[in-house]
Structures are given as structure tokens and as C-alpha cells.
TrEMBL record:
GO molecular function, one term: structural constituent of ribosome
Name of this protein: Ribosomal protein L16
Biological source species: Calocera viscosa (strain TUFC12733)
Any one GO CC term of the record: mitochondrial large ribosomal subunit
Keyword Ribonucleoprotein among UniProt keywords: yes
Family: Belongs to the universal ribosomal protein uL16 family.
GO annotation, biological process: mitochondrial translation
Gene3D superfamilies (UniProt xref): Ribosomal protein L10e/L16
Amino acid sequence: MASLLSSFSRLTLTSRSSPSTSLRPAHLPARSQIRFAGILAPKRTKYRKAHKGRVPIPTGGSLKGTTLIHGSYGIRVKGNGMRLSAKQLMAADTALKRKLKVLKNAKIWLRVFPDIPVCIKVCSYARGQDQPLRVVQGNETRMGKGKGTFDHWACRYEHSSPSQILANIRTAVQRAV
């Protein structure tokens, strides 16, 4: 043990003069520079953009995502299958948390996760000499010139006879909800 300590005592720290070979700490971005940090988003994706795709229609009688797993209550989506954005999911989550804050041991589990990147192509053009530029998106954009830039994260939910459950809720008090 003494030989190990004596070998460390002989070491000295020296600084190098060239900045290219010195070890500098990596620049970490500030909290304001991280995009989409407050919303639900996947950490990594294989591709930046995805095809629009179709909402799957279960034909084999699958009941995946239609039963309660964690809590005693669930929120179902009624209507045809479509996409829900991450902002809509976070708004629903915060609204539920506000209502259930007064109850003890209330917990919410989101059963869906927004993992589909949605891209929107925005085209602005002048309609006339006296009219200002108009921003259009969706079906009014002109054809060509690529897919468009990333806009938001979304998740698909299926339309089936037993609807898919978006959130499970557990409460200790049964009558408050």
C-alpha cells in the first residue's frame, strides 16, 4: 500500500500549451436550447421523417390496449382512428392531474406514446401586388419540393369495437371520480 501511495505522490500535473490537444469539457447546451424537452418525445429514432401511413384496423379480434392493466378506471377514445399529438396528450395528462390532485394516492398511467414524427410543409406566396404574403399548409401547398420539416410528435390510436384505452387511473377513493 505504501508503494502505491508513494508512486502517486511523485505525479505532477502539467498544462499543455496547444489548445487542440488539451482536454476541454464538452459544451453542454443550456436548458433553453434543448428542443421539445417538456413534451413526450422519443429519445432516439431510426429516421427523422416517417410516412403518413394508415391507422391499423384490427381484423383478427385482437384486444390489445382495450383492457385495464394498472388502475380501476380508464379513459377510452371514441370515434374513428386518427392521430393524437404530444401536446394533446400532455394537456389531457395535466388536466387529469389537476382534478386528481386532491385525492390521496391517485396515479395516472398513459398507455400510448407519441412516436411518429409528423412533418408539415409550409408554403408562403403572394396572391397579388397589393395583398401581403399568405402562409398556407395542408392540402393547399403546391406539389413538389420535398416532404417538409418536422413539426410535432404524434401517436396513432386504432378504431375498433372496444376502443383503445389512453390512460389508466388509480384512486383510493372510489366516489370522487
